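Exam revision sheet. Question 4 asks you to relate a sequence to its structure. Input first:
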Amino acid sequence: MKQVWYLLYNVFIIPILRTVLFLGQFINPKIRTGIEGRKKLVENLIIDLAGIDRSKKMIWFHSSSMGEFEQAKPIIEKLRSSKKVNIIITFFSPSGYTNSLKYPHADIIAYFPYDTPGTTARFLNLVRPNLAVFMRYDIWPNMIWQLEKKRIPSFIVDATMRSKTPRKWVLSKSFHKSLYSHVTRILAVSEEDELNFREFDVKREIIKAVGDTRFDRVYQKSINAKDKKLFKDGFFNGKKVFVLGSSWESDHEVMIPALLKLMKYDLNVITVIVPHEPTILHLEEIENSIAGSFKSIRFSYLNNYKDERVIVIDSIGVLLTLYTYAHAAYVGGSFKQGIHNVLEPAVYGIPVLFGPRHENSQEAIQLYKIGGGICVRNKKEAYRKLRKIFSDDELRKKLGKISFDYVRENVGATSRILAEFDKFI
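Answer key, structure tokens:
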């Protein structure tokens, strides 16, 4: 079956992908950046590899973008601390590549090559990895086939497989069944995902549920975040802090009216709003929606703080640390297209609120099921639930403990993954 899919993929699908990329570069800057970045891929690899100590084993990690790379970091960092290895990291997306160039635990950072037989073979001949690790789902057929041909072990880590996925459609299932049979190991995040992978007739010894490194990563980052100071000591003394994180306009339409009503009822509540895209336009829209009720101040002007009860964050990269000050939090995206990371606030032992569109997150689903997560569907429901958790300290602490215990109990995937690596390196 491999030969059939090899021909179909390379004769039909690859030319279509080439055409899409060629046309896409004229309308999408990211595609254009990716094409430009790959023009000197081989040349840059040759230069970078010249300084590599080949007496050490080469471990290659591939991530589609920044989100998947965050999941790889706990593995990379623990691997570097326990073994003398070289680490090469590749990305499919330009944003992942550009934002990770200064990552200190990598020896080489590069783009993933175009997935043709020739380019993948040349990449592997240059890099000569002892182990290839694909994070989550971004695997490419020719690369998988080339890895098997060269007898290089390949892993899919933090692998997920939903029960209702297009990968299970008839033709897609046949294709993926063939592809997964050429992977050395599939390390799934849960037993449910493992069972879903088994529907592709994956051999028992190939697939194993070991957990999700996102729990390890967020737990690790939370420890570091507690040492960072965004506000002066005692800034929030006597206050109850609510963080509206990674929020979009659709989240603001529901949550801001509910929060303003809560703040009139409870004079000790302070709201910190962290828009997903802190552009001037979005910041002004937020400030205008609050202006009739409360005064607000932007984070960058905090030196002029005069007891404003709404703080609008106009910078990026501080959300995880902001959650350390929160008594409860809302995670955005769940009134739009899909929820952001609910583990980031949960690790601090606080109730986590979100909207109805959270099916993309198994963590949100589980948090809701066990009680640490609170789903709100409209303004009235949001206000009612906010008032309940802010007027009942014992309830708030109880729900927060559920959130924290959920994260803590799922930490440890990194060690289990490295134990699987040890069998091959």
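Marking note for examiners. The chain has a mean pLDDT of 95.
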